[in-house]
Amino acid sequence: MVKALLFDLDGTLADTDPLHLLAWREALRPYGLEVDLGFYRKRISGRLNPEIVQDLLSLEGEEARRLIEAKEARFRDLAKDLKPTPGLLELLDLIQKKGLRWGVVTNAPKENARHVLGALGLDPPLLVLAEEVGRGKPDPLPYQVALKRLGVAPEEALAFEDSPSGVKSAVGAGLPTYALLTGHPQEALLAAGARGVLRDFWEALPLL
């Protein structure tokens, strides 16, 4: 019996990947890196910012911090008129009517998470930030923390993700996981362990 639903943020609650792609493209161009969709999916999507700049540029410390802050400020500037993924508001309404619990589990920095949730008009009762728990997706710890805070077993919850990294995190925590086809191909999501793929949240309604 489903008691709780856990959602990733970027690319799941809203299709923010095109905005992140643009912001990263602008941030990395001065370093001689050209970011196209394939590069973004393979090297950036679903990862923590410090890991990204260390991997791509071998940057740490103050220079890495400045690059990350500039990229995220640009993203927030772009992300002002976000729309929720179709069917999300209806799914959240059904969650409320059924008395279920829900929360958001994200690798996004705190300021970005608050910005996106505010732009969508959402105030989740639980928000788990990877930067605050110490490890990010694909590590299962963020979802393990979410389950503990909700007081539910993995089999009593559902997770919704959009990246292979996020799917691996949720599946690693024992959660039945469904993936949104907003940013990655079906094959990659299923290979990561997704139980199924969804075009939008209208297709998630029957799961409850």
Summarize the structure in words:
This is Phosphorylated carbohydrates phosphatase. It holds the Pfam family Hydrolase. It comes from Thermus aquaticus. Keywords: Carbohydrate metabolism, Hydrolase, Magnesium, Metal-binding. Its EC number is 3.1.3.-. The chain is an alpha/beta fold. It has two domains: 4-16 and 83-207, Rossmann fold, CATH 3.40.50.1000; 17-78, Orthogonal Bundle (DNA polymerase, domain 1). 47% of the residues lie in helices and 12% in strands. It contains ten helices and six strands, in the order E-H-H-H-H-H-E-H-E-H-H-E-H-E-H-E. A six-stranded parallel sheet has the order 3-2-1-4-5-6, with helices on both faces. Helix 10 links the parallel strand 5 (177-180) and strand 6 (196-198). Helix 1 packs across helix 4 and helix 3 packs across helix 4 (61-78). The termini are close together.
CATH superfamily of the largest domain: HAD superfamily/HAD-like
Tell me, rounded to a whole number, the average pLDDT.
95
Strand content: 5-15%
For the record, the count of structural domains works out to 2
Binned, the helix content reads 40-55%
Cross-sheet strand order for the largest sheet: 3-2-1-4-5-6
Which fold name fills CATH's third level, the topology of the largest domain?
A: Rossmann fold
Helix vs. strand class: alpha/beta
What's the order of the H and E elements?
EHHHHHEHEHHEHEHE
SSE blueprint and pairings:
Elements: E1 4-7, H1 17-28, H2 37-44, H3 49-57, H4 61-78, H5 88-98, E2 101-106, H6 110-120, E3 127-129, H7 130-133, H8 141-150, E4 157-161, H9 164-172, E5 177-180, H10 186-191, E6 196-198
Parallel strand pairs: 1-2, 1-4, 2-3, 4-5, 5-6
